[in-house]
Design goal:
CATH topology of the largest domain: RNA Polymerase Alpha Subunit, Chain A, domain 2
Number of domains: 3
Order of helices and strands: HEEEHEEEHEEEEEEEHEEEEEEEEHEEE
Shape: elongated
Strand content: 35-45%
Strand order of the largest sheet: 4-1-3-7
Radius of gyration: 40 Å
CATH architecture of the largest domain: Beta Complex
Largest sheet: 4 strands, mixed
Number of strands: 24
Distance between the termini: 155 Å
Low-confidence stretches: none
CATH class of the largest domain: Mainly Beta
Structural class: alpha+beta
Length: 322
C-alpha cells in the first residue's frame, strides 16, 4: 500500500513540474510576443544631438560655440531602442558647410535649414528624414574672417637618380605661390609655405608630380591643397675648369696660383657652353687690405645647373704689381 502511494506521489510531482515548465515557456513566449508588438508600434520621443560644423571656407573660421539641436522622433520601438543604445557622448552629428547652401544673415551670422541636420541624423539612425521633426527650422552660426597672405611655395624633395643622371636645375612649381589664411599671430610669422616631403628613387627621366602642401596641422588654410612640380632629369658628366682668380681692375695683383681648379658635374646639354667665364672666384678683400701673406679664396658664382664637386686651392699667395 505504501509503495503504491509513493508511486502516485512521484507521478503527481512529475506532472506538476511539467505543468510549471510548460507555463514558464508560454509565459516567456507571451512576454516576447508582447514586447515585439510594443516595439512594432510607433512612438514620439524628444531627443537632442550635439551639432559640429566643419569645412568652413578657407578664408573664414567657425567662431560660434558648439550647439545642441533638439528634435522629435516618430519611429517604431526598434529604432527608439537603437537610439537609446547610443551613449550621450556619442550623440554628435557633423555637418560639412561645403555640403549645405548656407546664407549670410547679418555681419558674421549665417544660417541653413535644419533639414540638413535631420538628414544626417536619419542616416545615423537608419530611418527616414520625414520621421524627424526639428524643433527649430533654421540653424544659426557665426563665421569670422581670417587674415590672408600670399607666400611662395618651398618644395621639400628627396630625388635619387640613376647613376650618371642628376636633377637639372631647380624644380618648377605651379603655382609658385599661394594665398594662405589664418589668425594674425600665425600668418604674420609665415614667410613661405612648405610642401610635404616628396621622395622618389631610381629616376632616369624628367617627370611631373603633384605634391601636397604642409598646412601646419590645420593651423593655416588655403584653397590650394597641392602644387604641380616639374623635375628635369639629365645625364651628367664630370668636367674640370680652370677659373682665373681676379680682383677689381683698379688693383694690379698677381696671384699664385693664378687659377682655381673646379671639378664639377655638367649636364650633357650644357657641356659645350660651360667655359671658365661661367664661374667667378672671390678673394677676401679685408685680408688683402691688411696685407696678409695668404688670402682666402672661394668659388663665388657658377651656373645653376652645374653641381660643384671640389675646388682648390682655398688660399693663394699674391704679389701687388706697381
Amino acid at each position: 500500500m505504501t509503495d503504491e502511494l509513493n508511486r502516485i506521489k512521484q507521478k503527481v510531482e512529475r506532472t506538476n513540474k511539467h505543468s510549471a515548465f510548460t507555463f514558464l515557456v508560454f509565459l516567456v513566449i507571451s512576454a516576447a510576443a508582447w514586447f515585439l508588438v510594443k516595439l512594432s508600434e510607433n512612438y514620439t520621443t524628444q531627443t537632442s544631438f550635439r551639432l559640429q560644423l566643419s569645412e568652413a571656407p578657407a578664408d573664414r573660421w567657425i567662431s560660434s560655440d558648439e550647439q545642441t539641436v533638439k528634435m522629435s522622433l516618430n519611429v517604431d520601438g526598434f529604432h527608439v531602442l537603437r537610439y537609446k543604445m547610443i551613449r550621450e557622448p556619442k550623440r554628435v552629428v557633423t555637418v560639412a558647410l561645403s555640403d549645405v547652401p548656407y546664407r549670410q544673415e547679418k555681419g558674421d551670422t549665417y544660417s541653413f535649414s535644419s533639414q540638413y541636420v535631420a538628414e544626417k541624423i536619419a542616416d545615423r539612425l537608419k530611418i527616414s528624414a520625414s520621421d524627424i521633426t526639428m524643433n527649430d527650422g533654421m540653424i544659426y552660426f557665426n563665421m569670422s574672417p581670417l587674415k590672408s597672405k600670399v607666400v611662395p611655395v618651398a618644395l621639400r624633395s628627396d630625388i635619387k637618380t640613376q647613376r650618371q643622371f642628376g636633377l637639372y636645375g631647380i624644380p618648377t612649381l605651379d603655382p609658385a605661390s599661394v594665398t594662405i589664411y589664418g589668425p594674425d599671430e600665425i600668418i604674420d610669422t609665415v614667410r613661405s609655405i612648405r610642401t610635404e616631403l616628396f621622395s622618389r628613387t631610381n629616376v632616369g627621366e624628367s617627370f611631373n608630380a603633384s605634391v601636397a602642401l604642409d598646412l601646419m596641422d590645420g593651423k593655416i588654410r588655403s584653397n590650394t591643397k597641392e602644387v604641380n612640380a616639374t623635375f628635369e632629369i639629365d645625364k651628367f658628366t664630370e668636367m674640370d675648369v680652370e677659373v682665373p682668380i681676379k680682383v677689381s681692375d683698379s688693383l694690379k695683383v698677381r696671384f699664385f696660383p693664378e687659377t682655381m681648379s673646379v671639378k664639377c658635374l655638367v649636364a650633357m646639354r650644357d657641356y659645350a657652353s660651360i667655359v671658365p667665364e661661367s664661374f667667378t672666384v672671390s678673394v677676401d678683400g679685408q685680408q688683402l687690405k691688411a696685407m696678409q701673406p695668404l688670402l682666402d679664396v672661394r668659388l663665388a658664382t657658377w651656373p645653376p645647373t652645374v653641381q660643384i664637386l671640389s675646388t682648390r686651392p682655398d688660399k693663394v699667395e699674391y704679389l701687388i704689381v706697381q
